[in-house]
Description:
By secondary structure, this protein is an alpha+beta fold. Helix content is 28%, strand content 11%. The protein is built from two helices and two strands. Strands 1-2 form a two-stranded parallel sheet. The longest helix has 10 residues, at 38-47. It is elongated, with a radius of gyration of 16 Å. The N and C termini lie far apart (37 Å).
Amino acid sequence: HRIVVYPRHSAGIDETAVVYPKGVRVELIQAPRIEISATLIRQGFRDGKPQRHLLPKAVFSYIDGSNLFQQ
């Protein structure tokens, strides 16, 4: 199995200290980092803020169409 990780600054990942099960490959993505989390996305939906640019089209459509995070 392959797991791809996009770390956040606040996550504090020490990739040298993590032990993975045999057969699991973990790839740490080296890309510009932005501070975004599922919590912020959910809160944005609740607050009516645009979230389309943060999610794949199908995911956004499902969440938006089913009002998952509306209070």
